[in-house]
Design goal:
- This protein is of the alpha+beta class.
- It has two domains: 9-47; 49-181, Nucleoside Triphosphate Pyrophosphohydrolase, CATH 3.90.79.
- Helices cover 18% and strands 46% of the residues.
- It contains three helices and ten strands.
- The chain has a four-stranded mixed sheet with strand order 7-4-9-8, with helices on both faces.
- The longest helix is centred in the middle third of the chain and has 13 residues, at 91-103.
- The radius of gyration is 19 Å and the shape is elongated.
- The chain starts with 11 loop residues before the first strand and ends with a helix.
- One of its GO terms (molecular function) is hydrolase activity.
- Keywords: Hydrolase.
- Its cofactor is Mg(2+).
Amino acid sequence: MTQKQDDISPWQIISSKTYYQNPWIKIDEYQVINPAGNPGIYGTVSFKNRAVGVVPLAENGDTWLVGQYRFPLSQYHWEIPMGGCPLDEDPAACALRELKEETGLIASELMPCGHAHMSNCITNEEGFVFVARGLEQGETEMEETEVLTIRRLPFDEVFAMVMDGRITDALSVLAIQRIRLLGMA
């Protein structure tokens, strides 16, 4: 059987060791022979969930953002509604659940909008984004770790926030720019 170019790794793994693991991530270190033929190390972070985001679009073109303090960055951030999707859960079902939990919105229509590898030099994390339409307002169901502010804004204002750097979350930037590029809003 011949391998495709994409399947041939220039790295040789000598050994691996897991240094840390919790319900969300696993950190491994590999002893390797690098592409130049020299010994080295490579560290990876494996995620036990996928990132899923959803951009709710109202009939008038408005969308909703959630604001929250992000512990790793020690900063408050504006983002699209999103969350972690267990590997055995359908990303679309997760998107609908996260939308309801964080904003109270219930969508009758959900369209895929993109798929990305979030930082493929060190992690296997995947991100999926969706556009939600046919929205009905319900009650939020936030998790105990979430203290969110919800804002409804015109899509053009949200796009401006991406372009001027007020929104920096990678999945949010990807979704908002893709929606604008595809003329979905």
